[in-house]
Design brief:
The complex is a heterodimer. By secondary structure, chain A is an all-alpha fold. Helix content of chain A is 74%, strand content 0%. Chain B is mainly alpha-helical. In chain B, 76% of the residues lie in helices and 0% in strands. The chains are: A mainly alpha, B mainly alpha.
Chain lengths: 106, 168
């Protein structure tokens, strides 16, 4: 425990992760531009990874960094499919407004 | 060292707030890159240098390049040139430059003072430890990640293709 007393307290790292996650959530709920919504999702994934790193640093385990690697993989796969969807929707609707795409048809 | 953590946290929070409030996609991307760099500095301070490098290479590098590609592809109109001229005025770079310079000064201070080492008080989780855990107990997770990435690649190619009906 003596090595941990010198490092960053768990609560403050978690607070930073919470603040970043809240920003991402607010951005996702407020913005209607699909690019901004994807960016907010990236912010939220990054904040979740930060929480894992903070916890891993606090307990002195490498598992937190492994979880961040998985989150990074997930974010890369998610953003590639998401941006492909954005491109396709822009070709269909000529706009990036998410509200314009609220109706489905066959 | 705690002060450095607070400074990097402040830069991360401010730039993230500017991401979700800026009206222009390119300006938001600039601030998002600064936000990822700030989080990478936080990772350094937390004793995760490998993850900090990955954050810069993959998040601030690869994923942001994807975003920039799509933003630039979506604006291929006749207004594109004047739009880009409006985006890239020198005034735009002031905010991200100040935040990035703060991070740079902080990082130089951290490296110069020798805090970012095992003797400096940080418990560094070396890449070797991470990879031992990653390819040991989490081997199934690595396989699952590869099974996620391949459908991601195929799905992105399939969804993003040009439909034939549009060309007619």
């Amino acid at each position: 425990m003596n090595a941990e007393s010198l490092s960053i307290p768990l609560a403050q790292g978690m607070l930073l992760a919470g603040v970043l996650f809240a920003f991402g959530l607010i951005g996702l709920l407020v913005r209607r531009n699909l690019i901004f919504m994807l960016m907010s999702v990236e912010i939220m994934l990054n904040a979740a990874g930060l929480a894992f790193i903070v916890a891993g640093a606090h307990w002195g385990q490498a598992d937190g960094q492994v979880m961040f690697l998985f989150i990074l993989t997930l974010a890369a796969a998610e953003v590639s499919v998401g941006l492909a969807l954005v491109l396709q929707l822009y070709r269909q609707f000529q706009t990036l407004d998410a509200d314009a795409m609220s109706r489905l048809w066959g | 060292m705690t002060g450095a953590f607070y400074l990097a946290s402040l830069v991360a929070a401010v730039s993230t707030g500017l991401v979700i409030t800026s009206l222009n996609a390119v300006h938001a991307l600039l601030y998002l890159i600064v936000s990822f760099l700030a989080v990478a500095v936080v990772f350094f301070i937390l004793g995760a240098p490998f993850i900090a490098m990955l954050e810069i290479i993959i998040y601030a590098g690869a994923i942001m390049v994807l975003f920039v590609f799509v933003v630039m592809m979506l604006n291929l109109g006749r207004r594109a040139i004047e739009q880009e001229a409006g985006w890239l005025t020198p005034r735009i770079w002031i905010g991200p430059s100040i935040l990035s310079a703060t991070l740079l000064v902080e990082l130089l201070y951290l490296f110069g003072s020798g805090i970012l080492s095992q003797a400096g008080g940080i418990t560094v989780q070396a890449p070797k430890q991470v990879s031992v855990v990653l390819l040991g107990p989490y081997l199934v997770g690595v396989e699952l990640a590869s099974m996620l990435l391949l459908p991601g690649l195929v799905g992105a190619y399939h969804v993003g293709r040009q439909l034939k009906s549009e060309n007619a």
